[in-house]
Amino acid sequence: MRIISGIQPSGELHIGNYLGAIKNWLELQKNSKNECWFFIADYHSLSEDYEPKEKSKEILDLATDLLALGLDPKKSVIFQQSDISDHAALAWIFNTIVKVSELERMTQFKDKVMVQKQNVNAALLTYPTLMAADILIYKAEAVPVGEDQVQHLEITRDIAKRFNTRFEKTFPEPKPILTETARVMSLSDPTKKMSKSHGPKSYIALNDSPETIEEKIKSAVSDPGGKGPGGANLLSIFKSFAVTREEKTEYEQFNKDHDAGKLMYSKFKPRLAELIAGYFAEYRKNHENLAKDPDYVKKVLEDGAEKASSIAQKTLKEVKKKIGLTI
Ligand code: ADP
Ligand code: TRP
């Protein structure tokens, strides 16, 4: 199966990104029958407010984080989106077959318009056509993402279908692959999804120290005795990071207490913080080493771009021919 996914370089990785998407990337690359492509969606990230001086650092940091988590250039092709200009060319072609009204219906578009009222640029609207191009240019069949991206995959399938009907059968109709925790909620407002855009107190970054994790979990919204969304979210995070048999048993007990309305947060929260900090201990060590060798990280992206570009060019050539541009 050919698999692709991307992530924007726009701030720190958090446990929502990890549990919703990257955890599956790591699982999928283990299976040698899968052909995995993972990339840094830097073009997409330009649709949000950003500081040009910081962008290149964000790209390098994200690549470093992904390698430290275990993405393996021997098993997966890892690259930077803007290195492959064919994505943007295919997106332009898709813009000619997608309707403005379809793009305006996207939840992410509607949300972002509210967040960055002073910067409602056209890329916010056409974001999904570039995403469709990212996926379809490699003719990928499956896309591991968090739940918030499912709507973008629906429109990707619509674009593929429309292209295949209007021209010639060219693209597969890719499906999302979701994890068990496809939607981790914010620590400060458990009715919203955990996201970089709601400030550092709302999420746990993978690079947070054990002390910071403890502080953040301590101040996370919970529901003493009750069964509200805050407690349920913390429990589901506990469940996701419980790996050993003991940790799983511990989870069962906490969950039972929560159901019975007598969960002791003063005991549960420090354990949860400890569990998360322990889970990422190896990552933090890998990260420290990789951060000392940016040239290696850049080389991984260069090698990845070389592999990606040959496939992307081939698809674009095929598409140009089918739509009548080749003379
Ligand atoms: P953010 O909302 O923090 O900016 P991104 O848009 O960069 O995150 O998302 C990168 C990947 O992580 C996507 O696959 C997305 O679906 C997933 N993801 C982001 N936030 C969450 C969350 N709270 N729960 C589960 N998955 C998430
Ligand atoms: N839109 C995705 C996000 O915000 C990132 C992304 C861009 C992506 N292109 C993609 C994900 C292609 C999967 C496939 O998280």
TrEMBL record:
GO (cellular component) term, any one: cytosol
Location(s) in or outside the cell: Cytoplasm
Enzyme class, first EC level, given as a word: ligase
Binding locations of L-tryptophan: 134
Motif ('HIGH' region): 9-17
Chief localization: cytoplasm
GO molecular function, a single term: tryptophan-tRNA ligase activity
Enzymatic reactions: tRNA(Trp) + L-tryptophan + ATP = L-tryptophyl-tRNA(Trp) + AMP + diphosphate + H(+)
Position of sequence motif 'KMSKS' region: 193-197
Residues that, per the record, bind ATP: 8-10, 16-17, 146-148, 184, 193-197
Keywords: Aminoacyl-tRNA synthetase, ATP-binding, Cytoplasm, Ligase, Nucleotide-binding, Protein biosynthesis
GO BP: tryptophanyl-tRNA aminoacylation
EC assignment: 6.1.1.2
Function: Catalyzes the attachment of tryptophan to tRNA(Trp).
Binding partners and assembly: Homodimer.
Family from the record: Belongs to the class-I aminoacyl-tRNA synthetase family.
HAMAP family tied to this protein: Trp_tRNA_synth_B
Name by which UniProt lists this protein: Tryptophan--tRNA ligase
Organism from which the protein derives: Candidatus Azambacteria bacterium RIFCSPLOWO2_02_FULL_44_14
